[in-house]
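Cross-check.
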Amino acid sequence: MATIFVVLALVYASVPAFAVEEGEARKLWDTCLLKITPKCALDIIAYVFGNGAISDSCCHDLVQEGRLCHDTLIHYISDRPHLRANESQYLKKSDQLWTRCVSTSKIV
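Predicted model, tokenized:
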């Protein structure tokens, strides 16, 4: 199931019709996608939208990316019509991931 979400995320990110269109939001989106590796982005998506795992190094990258970038990515994906029904669950997992990654990054 996580594979489906990863594939969907890649498709949405690569198809211009799904891109964030507002100027400032678009700039933020484009900036955020450059701050972490594609593998870490996929791991984050798999964790939040499936049952994936995330490494400590990806946690570090996520924290370096910043909370605003993380929230932008998760909100953008969870706002898809077929995911909206479980959006609160995804946002909760997103918050849990952020808290875990912040605590992990403080140790490293």
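The mean pLDDT is 78. The CA atoms of residues 60 and 105 lie 5 Å apart. Passed to J.P. for a second look.
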